[in-house]
Amino acid sequence: MTAVHQRLEAEGLYRRFAGRAVVNDVSLSIDAGEILCLLGPSGCGKSTTLRMLAGVETPERGVIRVDGVEVEGPLVSVPPEGRSVGLMFQDFALFPHLSVADNVAFGLRGGKAGKRARVRELLDRVHLAQHIDSYPHELSGGEQQRVALARALAPRPLVMLMDEPFSGLDNRLRDGIRDETLALLKEEGTAVVMVTHEPEEAMRMADRIALMRDGRIVQQGAPYNLYNAPVDKAAAAFFSDVNVIRGTVTGGLTRTAFGEFLAPGHADGSKVEIIIRPQHLKLDFDRNGQGPAPTPVNGVPARGSVVRARYLGRESLVEFEMEFDGTHLSAVVPGVFLPNAGTPLWLMMRRDRCHVFPAQVVT
Ligand SMILES: Nc1ncnc2c1ncn2[C@@H]1O[C@H](COP(=O)(O)OP(=O)(O)OP(=O)(O)O)[C@@H](O)[C@H]1O
Ligand SMILES: [Mg+2]
């Protein structure tokens, strides 16, 4: 054991509701200045995990430490106000009868001048200094959100816990406020756990993502790793649509219309699913029935005919029916690419973008 502690550590958090484990052996650790996003589908236990970290929900088992000091464990349960955590929830309700300044100053101790200086500093930082004497009902949703952020950060919490803090904002406001929030949290050096069910938000905000499913963390790592090295099909599919090619393993290989795929560790005769994201399929033109030559990187090309193509702004989505078995595959192409229905094209699967998983047994 080293003496250096992470800012926030949780080990083996466990909580049941109505006999069902809603948070099942969750462990996390976050350093100062780091942002961890708890990502997962609705009901997977994200908020319950966050509430236990905050101290407003009690785990049945598990330990929580802040800077190495146990705040939750078999013999201790420090209340929320003793944990040096800032909280920001979806319904972040400001105090309606208090001015912006008094809202931000709410959790501050000490002299009037010192408080006022901190309030000013934070309101400047969130570009709301001109609203210091306004009341919440005089502010827009986005402005209220920024006041709530300033209020949560005012007492310089060691840890900031945020539960879908941007979900009440419309899309255009959201991007700006997210980036501003991120910058401020980084500046303050707070350790952050942010809950979201949107993969794009997690990828935009997080240094690390913890992907949750059914009360467990199924994968944890940098956004790049979760996107490019998913642990299973569901983890892959959480971040984008995926194409699935099915095959059977013989001698460590799976033969498909796209050539052979290595399937190490999969038993002979077992069924596998090869997963590739639509943006990782490569397209090439059909030249009198001929496609491009096979390569080790791209494998064997397979021909499909366009079912439909749609323009999505930055990119185009083209859906194919494959000649080899009539299955449908989707490809995303940057820019405008709108071939007519029926156009034959060749598809290639970049080997380094494919993931081979055991086929899911349908029950
Ligand atoms: N106080 C409670 N009493 C009973 N069941 C609860 C309680 N709180 C949460 N649950 C249940 O625990 C499960 C996990 O809830 P939780 O709020 O942690 O999910 P979540 O991942 O935050 O979902 P969402 O994305 O919808 O907010 C849900 O099935 C929920 O119904
Ligand atoms: Mg929730």
User: What order do the helices and strands follow?
Assistant: EEEHEEEHHHEHEHEEHHEEEEEEEEEE
The proportion of residues forming helix, as a percent range, comes to 10-25%
| Secondary-structure content class | alpha+beta
CATH class of the largest domain: Alpha Beta
Number of beta strands: 20
Residue windows where pLDDT falls under 50 for at least 5 positions: none
The span between the termini is 45 Å
Categorize the overall geometry: elongated
What is the residue-mean pLDDT, rounded to a whole number? 93
Across the major sheet, the strand order is: 6-7-8-3-9-10
What is the CATH third-level topology name of the largest domain? Answer: Rossmann fold
Number of domains: 2
CATH superfamily of the largest domain: P-loop containing nucleotide triphosphate hydrolases
Name the CATH architecture of the largest domain. 3-Layer(aba) Sandwich
InterPro entries: AAA+_ATPase, ABC_SmlMolc_Importer, ABC_transporter-like_ATP-bd, ABC_transporter-like_CS, ABC_transpr_FbpC, Mo/tungstate-bd_C_term_dom, P-loop_NTPase, Transp-assoc_OB_typ2
GO molecular function: ATP binding
Organism: Meridianimarinicoccus marinus
Protein name: ABC transporter ATP-binding protein
